[in-house]
Each structure stands twice: as C-alpha cells, then as structure tokens.
Amino acid sequence: MSRPATILITGSSGQVGFELQRALVLHGRLICPDRSQFDLSQPATLTAALDAWQPDIIVNPAAYTAVDRAEDEPALAHAINAESVAAMARWAAANKALLVHYSTDYVFDGSKDDAWREDDAANPQSVYGLSKWLGEQAIRDSGCRHFILRSSWVAGVYGQNFLKTMLRLAASRDRLAVVADQFGAPTPASLLADVSANLVARCQADAGQPYGTYHVVAQGRTSWHEYACFVIALARDAGWPLALAGAPRAIASRDYPQKAVRPANSQLDCSKLMHTFDLNLPPWQDAVRQLFQTIDDARKP
Ligand SMILES: NC(=O)C1=CN([C@@H]2O[C@H](COP(=O)(O)OP(=O)(O)OC[C@H]3O[C@@H](n4cnc5c(N)ncnc54)[C@H](OP(=O)(O)O)[C@@H]3O)[C@@H](O)[C@H]2O)C=CC1
Ligand SMILES: Cc1cn([C@H]2C[C@H](O)[C@@H](COP(=O)(O)OP(=O)(O)O[C@H]3O[C@@H](C)C(=O)[C@@H](O)[C@H]3O)O2)c(=O)[nH]c1=O
Ligand SMILES: [Mg+2]
Prior knowledge:
Layout: E1 5-9, H1 15-23, E2 28-31, H2 46-53, E3 57-60, H3 67-70, H4 74-95, E4 98-104, H5 127-142, E5 145-151, E6 154-155, H6 162-172, E7 177-179, E8 183-184, E9 187-188, H7 189-205, E10 212-215, E11 222-223, H8 224-237, E12 249-251, H9 271-277, H10 284-299
Parallel strand pairs: 1-2, 1-3, 3-4, 4-5, 5-10, 6-9, 7-12
Antiparallel strand pairs: 8-11
C-alpha cells in the first residue's frame, strides 16, 4: 500500500480554506499552517517550510482579498497574491508537487457582453485583480502541474462575505442600497472545495490530467442587487426580524463610490470544466438557498 499524500492547505482560516479541510480529509495527511507558520507576506521564507513539510500537493486559497484596501497596500497584496504564489509554484515544479490555486473574475475588465472564457484576455482594473493575475502567470511560467480555479463572489458559512453582510445590514438598518449594474454569480466556498477535492482525487488515480485554468462558479447570472433581494427574502420568509422594510434599493455603481473599480460583467463560462471532467454545477439560487439554510440552522437553539 502506498503512503497517504501530504497535502498542504494555506489560508485554512478563510472561507475556502475552511471548506477544503472537510473536502480533502479523505485524500491525505493535511498540514494547515496559520500565517505565523507560513506567512505569504514573506515570500522568501516559504521555501524552507516547504522543504521541511515536503507536500505532494499544495492547495493555496490564502490570499489578500480586501479589494479596496489593496489599492492602498499594493506591495503587500503583490507579496501575498503574486510573489508567494511564484515561490510555491517554483517549489512545486522542482519537487514534482501538484499546485491547486484560486483566482478571480477581477482579472477581467468586465467589458465583454457574454460570459468570460478561460483564454479571454485579462485586463485587471484593480490592485487586487492585477496581483491575482500576476500570481496566475507565475504558476504558468513555473511549469508545475497545476489547476488554477477562477471563481467569483465566493460565500461560505465560515468567514466574511456579501451574503452575510446583507443579512447583517437588513437586520440593523431600515435602508439599504445595492449596485444593480454589476453582473456575475455567487459561488459557495463548499462548491469550490468539492471541485478541488474531485480534481485532487483524479490526479491521485492518474497523474496524466488536463491541468490548467478552469472557471468554477454557480450557474446563471445575477446582479449584486438581485442577489441581495434574494437573500433578504429568504431571511424574511424564515422569520428573521429585519429592520429593513421591503427590498434594497437598486443603484448604479457610480452612486456607490469605492476605491477599487469592479468589473461590470463578471460572468464566468464554466463549460470547459463541466465538459472536461463531466461535472455538474448548481444554479446560483439553489447554492444560495442551501447556504442560507445552513446559516439559519446555526442560529436556532
Ligand atoms: N472571496 C471571494 O469573493 C473570491 C475569492 N477568490 C479567491 O479564492 C481564494 C479564497 O478566498 P476566500 O476563502 O474568500 O478568502 P478569505 O479572505 O476568506 O481568506 C483568506 C485567507 O488567507 C489568509 N491569509 C491572508 N494573508 C495571509 C498571509 N500573509 N499569510 C498567510 N495567510 C494569509 C487568511 O488568514 P488570516 O485568517 O490569518 O487572515 C485567510 O485564511 C483566494 O485566492 C481569493 O482570491 C476568487 C473569487 C472570489
Ligand atoms: C455592502 C454593500 C456593497 N455594495 C456593492 C459593492 C460591490 O460592488 C458589491 C459587492 O460588495 P463586496 O464588498 O462583497 O465586493 P468585493 O469585496 O469587491 O467582492 C469581490 O471580492 C473579491 C475577493 C473577489 O474575488 C470577487 O469575486 C468579489 O467577490 O456590492 C452595495 O452596493 N451596497 C452595500 O451596502
Ligand atoms: Mg470584499
């Protein structure tokens, strides 16, 4: 019998990292360092830790994800999202490890009319988007076996996200305005983790996989405003006491000034993933309903 794989999961305190600990537990011995043990703001320190742990698989959901704050801290965002990713990719290439990495709709400029495909030209409009794009490119340049899973609007039971923010604001405020001219799809952190585990299992069965970049989002298209309305309606139906009467107001992006520019069209075409691996991705409404159910259940005594 062969020994179990050693799987390093970075960012295990984040939304996706938390779910990965569940999804990958059957696939190997998990090493889940926190940032004091594996600090992506210090790219030069990572190789020594990797040499000590000798992971067969590096799964890297750790990232600098504060999109507006990144505009003021570009060096830190680049260290975490690009330079450290480059260091992990070089180590993976030299040590024949598999690297599973995550990227974002924010690598695109949002100008396309229909959904973005994996090989469409990136044109990031924010520091966060650029840092994630440079991280992707470093992986491709390293020559390591890799999957880059590009997703959007990730929400999990664990961690911070738009869905939870909407529930919190609807509970505490009688007014809420949400942008209605940015389109995309919410994606559960658990879905990303389950797809990751599926790909890892395939690699363990047969190392000759169609590695590369894949889009992974829940299916369909919505706006942040429609998404907010949907979540708040679920909370109202479940009897949550809300300060907000009715639905949030629809506004334009120019009426919600933010430091970083967000893409107008974030829709990601997932047909490459679905066809290559024969996987089914759920409609965003089903995914969000299930996520809300879990959050609602957790509130009940
Ligand atoms: N959230 C989203 O909407 C989307 C996310 N993605 C991508 O998916 C991946 C996972 O995102 P998500 O789970 O939402 O992210 P979170 O923001 O929930 O978690 C980020 C994780 O990274 C860790 N981290 C941050 N800085 C460092 C550091 N210097 N050293 C080590 N660890 C660090 C955090 O640790 P700590 O707890 O110590 O801060 C945390 O565990 C990321 O690559 C992100 O770019 C893609 C599309 C959408
Ligand atoms: C809280 C709030 C947000 N908004 C808008 C701002 C923004 O355009 C949109 C979503 O808000 P967020 O703060 O979640 O946006 P943001 O942090 O940019 O979300 C992004 O995070 C990174 C990590 C990603 O990779 C992306 O896929 C995406 O999920 O809603 C309102 O219109 N009204 C509100 O009250
Ligand atoms: Mg955010």
